[in-house]
Amino acid sequence: AGGGGPSGAGGVEGTRGRTFVAYGGAMLVDGGCGEGARRAGVPSWQPGPTRDWLWATLVSTLEVPPLDRVAAFDNDGTLACEKPASSVGAFLRQVAPASQPKDGHDTERLLAQALAGLTPLQAAARAGDFMAAARHPRFHRPYPDLTYQPMVELVRLLRRLEFTVFVVSDSSRDFLRVMAPAAYGLAPECVIGSEAEINWQGGQLRRQRRVIPLDDGPGKPAHLWDRAGRLPLLATGNAKGDIELLGSARHALLVRHDDAHREYAYDDHQALAAASSPGWTIVVMREDCAEVLAR
User: Fold this and answer.
1) 132 vs 244: CA distance, rounded Å
2) Could you tell me where the DSSP H helices lie in the chain?
3) 82 burial level (CB within 10 Å; 0-12, 13-18, 19+)
4) Residue 147 pLDDT > 90, yes or no?
5) Closest to 69 measured CA to CA, from 150, 154, 166, 143
6) What is the pTM of this model?
7) What are the tens digits of pLDDT across the range 59-101?
């Protein structure tokens, strides 16, 4: 299972001191020149040190066989807006209006209780109805549209470079499986997340009240290994619950939210402290992103 893109011949060509790497239909340029970024389909990344790091990282990974090219992305706050509540949190308020979750883990527990007894397809249908009808309180757009344009561009580029791309989230796996194909172009099997226990009962799969397991912190690299049998070359996250996932990767990208005008400004100090580790870099929304929310 995976989100790998079509195969393509690789090649290297030097032009005026720059190295152009053509692979899988994408054009990468050492140093991240603007024309290369446009050709590769990531115009929302501003020129500068962060994009230079990303370019050099991607060029280096082309030496790895395609079967071993794995990338992992957190969802809430990394791929998609999570303020004032994540999409799953907003869904919980719809299906259980009286619920008052203390945190993301509590959201998953309460959602499992609210949807207990449903088949996975019935729960997916309710999630799909929510995604079609609900609107974000500030941006007045459907929740699947509130993705970060630079991250979506990066996912698409990685797939063209024959990466298998996974979403590794502590949010509801089956909720995100409904969202991922349209929002990110990823198949349901590319989503790893927390979910209610599901058992075979009376000739059907049925959701139970218990969440097993919570996919957060050290659970993220462990569950990625369970699914992929490999750890990531590149991992991207934004919070303390992503530290272990990013630490398991050869290259780590941490999203810092500092743009209250175009989205929300909030820091995760534990994650920022971890970003001093070798192989990590920080993408700063205000400085590194020409656009923030997806078009």
Assistant:
1) 34
2) 34-40, 49-61, 87-95, 104-114, 120-133, 149-160, 173-184, 219-228, 243-247, 269-274, 285-288
3) buried
4) yes
5) 166
6) 0.90
7) 999 999 999 999 999 999 999 999 999 999 999 999 999 999 9
